[in-house]
Amino acid sequence: MLDANAQLPLYKQLKEVIKTKINTGEYTENKRIPTEPEFIKNYGVSRITVRKAIEELVAEGYLVKKQGKGTFISGHKVLRKIEYVTGFSDSGKSSQLKTTSSLLKEEILTANQELAEKLEIPVGAKVLYTQRKRLGNGTPLLLENNYFDYARFAFLQEEDLTGSLYEILRKHDILPINPGETTLEIVTADDFMAKTMAVAIGTPFFYMQTVVKDQNMRPIHFGKQFYLGDAYTFSI
């Protein structure tokens, strides 16, 4: 039981108990933690106390909420260097994750001013848009939105995009080795993102906009990517 007379608030005591169980391996990676009623029964605390402890642990990256499933211990963090071009498959391998992908959308768009500037094509030119959900050990980690100059990359429509995009490009002698301008900010999941990525509304994501260029400094794609916040560490 927790000590209601201690100077440390009950929610912080419970938080430390949960952290200890995580650090000692009693609560194991990617496993669901006890439910709110179980914590209330086991530690004699209120629902508010339990929720506050869990919310802080989610914010600190120890736990992750999955919509309709409960709260789980966070898995491995994927390290990604911003200044290098690193594909999801390669990042996953270096972090010892089994990576899989599903193609959610594949559409032909018309380039607006933003896409024309990023891809260095005329306004109104055809653009190939793909959206993929990338998973590590079965957990959705990245919602990937890529825009390609259709004139150069129409062949991707004939390729299997559930694997490594960069491996496909290399087979066509296109080397994704030069990062262009990249921005990174924090956003939170809306209803669409929550349903697509199986997380709670409000879950933090890293939102990256980037242009990747080939060996001749020609744009390959303009990306708008959403990385699950508690699964990634970015280094500069």
UniProtKB/TrEMBL annotation:
PROSITE patterns: HTH_GNTR. InterPro entries: Bact_HTH_transcr_reg, Chorismate_lyase_/UTRA_dom_sf, Tscrpt_reg_HTH_GntR, UTRA, WH-like_DNA-bd_sf, WH_DNA-bd_sf. GO terms for biological process: negative regulation of DNA-templated transcription. Coiled coil: none annotated. Keywords: DNA-binding, Transcription, Transcription regulation. Residues 8-76 form the HTH gntR-type domain. GO terms for molecular function: DNA binding; DNA-binding transcription factor activity. Pfam families: GntR, UTRA. PANTHER family: MANNOSYL-D-GLYCERATE TRANSPORT/METABOLISM SYSTEM REPRESSOR MNGR-RELATED, MANNOSYL-D-GLYCERATE TRANSPORT_METABOLISM SYSTEM REPRESSOR MNGR-RELATED. This is HTH gntR-type domain-containing protein.
